[in-house]
Write a structure and sequence with these properties.
The complex is a heterodimer of chains A (373) and B (299). With 373 residues, chain A is an alpha/beta fold. Helices cover 27% and strands 20% of the residues of chain A. Classes of the chains: A alpha/beta (373), B mainly alpha (299). Chains A and B meet through α2, α3 and α4 of A and α1, α9 and α10 of B.
Chain lengths: 373, 299
């Protein structure tokens, strides 16, 4: 039974290098060298929230929050996920954690399909391997429990004795830079936002997960505290051999912390690629618009006019074909007719873009030329 | 990082402190200690409880033996300082003994309704879906009747008596408690810390026990305490209507009913059981106010 297994402490020596699974690389989303096997393989993940109403509470419409999202998270990397609010970032995170049931698609952790009967990974085991830090540091801690109890809950649930779980929680508090003597018995309302978020990080680490999903984990903090927490996250990642999925709307933060970045728009992935290349040379018009809207410290790089106008379309009735076409300056007939696939643009195997313009002979007038092999 | 040096200041002490935890309820008690008003009210209720339990020690006269010669003596009569009732029984003895039934009929239904209604409400709120609809629609059916009407109907069918009174009042108090606990649980259930608890792989019952219960119990308890005063009044009302406790049992509502005929002869004596009902229900109300303040951890 996994419940009685001893949970290793988050010391550097206790966390042996993560075994790389024998699973083969999935085409199109590889990364440069090293430990390249995907730790997490998300395939065609879909969630349509029913909008209920009317007399009999029947489903009136479906909100296509996440629609066929596929990506890999490689061992040891930080995958940033960016996009406007409402684009499905948080839903993706919750689906990955199995906090909400997906309508379609699969998630495989370390080569084992989550929830599958044969050679599958149970949800309980998944939660030992994957944890999440929520955006709202206050509501994600039980107001009626001292923070040490909140941290100890996970190990306690997984079979560690009460005092052992508390001891571990004290060590974790220390690990996230809070003096256990001072903070262990405090209640969430007695901590500042940054301190609470540190507690949340400690709670997420309590089960020694291999992957941590950070859902806007630093977005609610003010800039100086945000920097401290980001540095803490970077340190913890190195010490504990963690893999991060970092969800944010702050492009500068994502650039700082991520190895690869995934851009989402209206429930779909529009572009994914290594951070430096994606920021230097965005391929998808939406990515370009996002990046040009990014505030810069350089006064010469002022944003003169809004790169995008209007709001994203209603996810209940998304546009046909490419979902971005209603706001895209380059939209043509093909964009309306055919939904672009997420494909590697010619000559760049590490990236994938869902745009007709980066597919040779797609029918778009600005389509790139094929690179001769 | 998290090595021995960390806790070297005094690991044993720190661990011990964390283990004891300064539990939530201990904090509530600390706050309560500073609230003199609530303490006084609790003192009055405790005194009342003591008097009622050890009634023979606090009374001289038998509450059931009267004499026609001593009928309706006014307040201040030597030997019967609070006067006598319409059949010459000592009113003080009657009131002390009557408190037994009145408190029983006031507290027991609320307690039972708290157990049943609280359980159903938390279940409905946490599980949601079809179960929630089933429980809540049934509650709505019961809720459609005013609680006094419901209680009258039930005792009317089952007949008078203490047991039936308690049963009737329990049934009429279950719906509001279900309502309150369901709405509080639904609010708490959608907070991130419950999600986080689910993310740690805990079973639903474990989450309910460690994360839901300590957040919903306080408000439900406060609400239930405020129901006690209503319940005492309803129980008295049932007795007054002849549907509750039957004579010659001493019960405040029944006493009020019997002394009603003497209202013009000795109004103060006739009003005394009502004063007792008033004091008790007010004390319970004030106590529930004090509890609510003490339980609000964020203040």
């Amino acid at each position: 039974m996994t419940g009685t297994r001893d949970i290793p402490l988050p010391t550097a020596d206790a966390c042996a290098p993560v075994p790389v699974s024998a699973r083969s690389e999935v085409a199109g989303t590889g990364a440069s060298g090293g430990r390249t096997a995907p730790l997490l393989h998300v395939d065609n993940l879909t969630k349509h929230f029913p909008l209920k109403g009317g007399l009999l509470n029947r489903t009136q419409a479906l909100v296509q929050a996440v629609d066929g999202v596929s990506f890999n998270v490689l061992t040891g990397e930080t995958l940033g996920i960016v996009g406007e609010s409402g684009c499905g970032k948080s839903t993706t995170a919750r689906l990955m954690m199995h906090l909400i049931r997906p309508d379609g698609g699969t998630i495989a952790f370390d080569g084992r399909k989550v929830g599958a009967i044969e050679h599958g990974l149970s949800h309980r085991d998944l939660h030992r391997q994957m944890q999440m830090v929520f955006q709202d540091s206050y509501s994600s801690l039980n107001p009626r429990l001292p923070v040490v109890m909140s941290i100890a809950f996970g190990p306690f649930v997984h079979g560690l004795g009460r005092s052992a779980a508390l001891k571990r929680a004290m060590e974790l508090l220390q690990a996230v830079g809070l003096d256990p003597l001072l903070f262990a018995n405090r209640y969430p309302h007695e901590l500042s936002g940054g301190q609470r978020q540190r507690v949340n990080i400690a709670r997420a680490l309590a089960l020694s997960p291999r992957i941590v999903i950070l859902d806007e984990a630093v977005s609610a903090l003010d800039k100086s505290v945000e920097a401290q927490v980001l540095n803490l996250l970077v340190d913890l990642k190195a010490q504990l051999d963690l893999t991060y999925v970092f969800i944010s709307h702050d492009l500068n933060v994502v650039r700082y912390i991520s190895d690869r970045v995934m851009v989402m728009y209206l429930g779909k992935v529009v572009e994914i690629g290594p951070v430096d290349r994606l920021y230097r040379d965005p391929r998808h018009p939406y990515t370009r618009a996002l990046l040009s809207a990014m505030p810069s410290m350089n006064p010469r790089r002022r944003t003169v006019e809004a790169p995008l106008s209007g709001d994203p379309p209603n996810p209940i009735r998304p546009p046909s074909g490419c979902r971005f076409r209603t706001r895209c300056p380059f939209a043509e007939q093909v964009c309306e007719a055919v939904a672009p696939l997420l494909l590697a643009p010619p000559g760049d195997a590490l990236r994938a873009v869902a745009c007709h313009m980066s597919v040779p002979k797609s029918g778009h007038s600005r389509a790139v030329a094929a690179v001769s092999a | 990082m998290a090595d021995a040096a960390v806790l070297s200041s005094d690991p044993a002490l720190a661990l011990k402190r964390a283990q004891q935890g300064q539990s939530y309820w201990r904090r509530v008690w600390q706050r309560l200690r500073d609230d003199k008003m609530t303490l006084a009210v609790i003192g009055v209720l405790a005194l009342l409880l003591l008097m009622v339990i050890f009634a023979p020690w606090f009374t001289v006269h038998d509450p059931y033996v009267g004499s026609v010669l001593r009928r309706l003596k006014p307040i201040g009569t030597p030997g019967h300082w609070l006067g006598t009732d319409e059949v010459g029984r000592d009113l003080w003895s009657r009131m002390v003994y009557g408190g037994r039934l009145s408190l029983l009929a006031g507290v027991v239904p609320v307690f039972l309704a708290l157990l049943i209604g609280g359980f159903l409400g938390i279940l409905a709120g946490y599980v949601g879906g079809v179960l929630n609809s089933a429980i809540m629609r049934l509650t709505d059916v019961l809720y459609a009747f005013p609680s006094i009407l419901l209680a009258i109907a039930i005792t009317g069918i089952l007949g008078a008596g203490l047991q039936n009174t308690i049963l009737a009042l329990t049934i009429s108090f279950i719906p509001p408690i279900i309502r309150i606990s369901e709405s509080i649980t639904t609010q708490v259930r959608h907070l991130d810390f419950v999600e986080a608890a689910r993310a740690s792989g805990a079973a639903p019952l474990t989450i309910m026990r460690y994360h839901i219960l300590n957040n919903v119990l306080g408000p439900i308890l406060v609400y239930a305490t405020s129901l006690i005063s209503i319940c005492i009044i309803l129980a008295a009302g049932l007795s007054f209507l002849g549907l509750g406790v039957t004579p010659p049992s001493a019960e405040w509502g029944l006493m009020l009913n019997n002394l009603r005929q003497a209202l013009w002869v000795s109004p103060f004596v006739a009003a005394l059981p009502g004063v007792m009902i008033f004091i008790t229900s007010m004390c319970f109300n004030l106590m529930s106010d004090g509890l609510r303040q003490a339980m609000d951890v964020r203040l």
